[in-house]
Amino acid sequence: MSVPREAGSGKREALSREVGGERREALTAPVEDYLKAIYAIGKGSGAAATNEIAQRLALTPASVSGMVRRLADQGLLAYERYRGVKLTESGRRAALRTLRRHRVIEAYLAEALGYPWDRVHDEAERLEHAASDELVDRMAATIGEPEVDPHGAPIPTRDGSVDETVYRSLADLEVGSTGVVVRVSDEDPEMLRYLAELTIVPGKRLTVKAHAPFDGPITLSVGRQELSIGPALAAQVMVAPIADRGVKRG
Amino acid sequence: MSVPREAGSGKREALSREVGGERREALTAPVEDYLKAIYAIGKGSGAAATNEIAQRLALTPASVSGMVRRLADQGLLAYERYRGVKLTESGRRAALRTLRRHRVIEAYLAEALGYPWDRVHDEAERLEHAASDELVDRMAATIGEPEVDPHGAPIPTRDGSVDETVYRSLADLEVGSTGVVVRVSDEDPEMLRYLAELTIVPGKRLTVKAHAPFDGPITLSVGRQELSIGPALAAQVMVAPIADRGVKRG
DNA sequence: GCATAAAGTTAGGCCGCACTAACTTATTTC
DNA sequence: GAAATAAGTTAGTGCGGCCTAACTTTATGC
Q1: CB contact under 8 A, A60 and B114
Q2: Cβ-Cβ contacts under 8 Å for A8 (sequence gap 6 or more)
Q3: Residues whose CB is less than 8 angstroms from the CB of residue A141 and which lie 6 or more positions away in sequence, other chains included
Q4: What is the secondary structure of A83-131 as a DSSP string?
Q5: Which of A131, B43, B103, B167 is the most exposed place for a label (fewest CB within 10 A)?
Q6: Measured between beta carbons, which residues in chain B are less than 8 angstroms from residue A112?
Q7: What span, in angstroms and rounded, lies between the C-alpha atoms of A35 and A32?
Q8: How far is residue B231's CA from residue A89's CA, in Å, rounded to a whole number?
């Protein structure tokens, strides 16, 4: 007669995980990835298109259609056929939880384990689905509750709020103005290594010296060196302009 | 015409992971769990029975039959119908890799993040499938290349060797003899908490004072206290007897 | 040595999550 | 506003991994 089991549907992954005040089932890794992608696309407001989601996750649109339907059934997103999707409140919370995990892990790997900043992303991409909230909280505490990850992305708080400030990209900065790098895109290790070489990292102050027309290269002064980068790269670097109204002397 | 993708079978999880000298595909989490279980059952030599595997993994024997067939096809284990299974050399290596991950992670959680020893197991159980070898090696390095995990289990080396010494359980120790706790079973948090209370932890020296017949309780002296525990619990505590040939005076 | 119990297997399902191919709905363009 | 194109959907498949139910093989008891 064999031991009675969970009964029903057979899947074992979907057991209820760590509960922190909120009662919830553990989401599968693919589901968490979808939610993150949809969140990233729709940021504060907008709806996410099937194709965009597919592209971000390197899946076919057909696969996305299917999954989106299931996620809508679970109440994680609002979906109207042929109209794109939006996260529901519950979906948004789930996305932010995953995002918090991801970024805390990135920060921890860099800070506590000496991971190079171009490799934290991939590692975090896998760990974020396996780490418990407790682990993530311990990591955060150990490295002093960081507010941003190694690429400058803000870390959502435990209770699900994030700084959603939209910064200007370096490509959009006017010639002559100065800004501080707040954040760079984190997915391409190659690019990160190159940026590190140029010392274009969060916190760095730089000034746009010239911007060639027709999508030409942008010339910057960073520290005491002058260099120029292509517009595609510049678009991946987010900056906060500094209102230095003729302060004369740096 | 949509971007050409990986082609073929559709699964994306099974991409080749981190290679460390050895060319290999990433195994799925369930597969790693099977291999670990089979390794644990067959330890140095013996074959593992379908039922035992099923029990350890909390699955039905039918499921195990199916999976075992697939693993045999992949060359991870040798299988003869109705005869049980054994790991092949490649299966053994995979099992030890996972075991190393598991135990290094446990040690790291306890050492670097202050995890209580009764909770490291569950966390490691999930992380072991997501952590790269690089991460695990960094963890190990950071805490000084430990040789055992918090429960005293030996950590396999990078190149796949482990100490397979079989110790005697506390239940088998003769009355009057003294031993050092080398290892306790790690899966039951409740039990671990209780053992910790009794200060029965790896490294602790203890002496068997009495052993009641008919599977009765075992009386020990641990440090300066005397206590008794049931035989089932004692069986989970492995000890190395100390040959104190009448040293008189402790 | 034969019946019964225990262990193990096959058959048939189901769910999650991917894919291709073919079709439908929106959007653009002239 | 009809045709072309882009975006999105359904239908049908496959694989991994689990389940139950029914059957077969092996071990055991008398």
Answers
A1: no
A2: none
A3: none
A4: S-EEE-HHHHHHHHHHHHHHHHHHHHHHHHH---TTTHHHHHHHHTTT-
A5: B43
A6: 112, 142
A7: 5
A8: 53
Burial (CB count within 10 angstroms: exposed 0-12, middle 13-18, buried 19+), residue A110: buried
Tally Cβ neighbours within 10 Å of residue B198: 17
SS3 label, residue B148? strand
Partner-chain contact A138 B5, CB within 8 Å: no
* pLDDT above 90 for A198: yes
Q: pLDDT of A166-194, one tens digit each? A: 999 999 999 999 999 999 998 889 999 99
Spatial distance from the CA of A88 to the C1' of C26 (Å): 25
Rounded CA-CA distance A43/A50 in Å is: 15
Banded pLDDT at B12 (limits 50, 70, 90): very low
Chain B contacts of A130, Cβ < 8 Å? 126-127, 129-130
Residue pLDDT, tens place only, B102-129: 999 999 999 999 999 999 999 999 999 9
Q: Are residues B129 and A132, on separate chains, in Cβ contact within 8 Å?
A: no
- Give A137-163 pLDDT, tens digit per residue: 999 999 999 999 999 999 999 999 999
pLDDT for residue B136 is more than 60: yes
